[in-house]
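tool=predict chain=A
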Amino acid sequence: MCRILGVGKSGFYAWIHQPLSDRAIEDERLLELIRESYVASGRIYGSPRVFLDLREAGEQIGKKPSGSHHENSRNPSDPWL
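tool=predict ok
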């Protein structure tokens, strides 16, 4: 895999074993909140309503993050899951 990616083995393993950044941890927490809101809505809310749900819950979030998690979803048939 290292050959395909064009990186050295030591650099790859150093990268894979480094701890998650604060930003990555916050993104994971936020994604879980987005998923919970989406599932609680019967899987019908889009990013504008999920954004409002998170704001009502006291989260400090902009419209861009709530929508970008939707766009980066791994399951296109059921976003946020």
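DSSP finds five helices and no strands in the chain. The radius of gyration is 16 Å.
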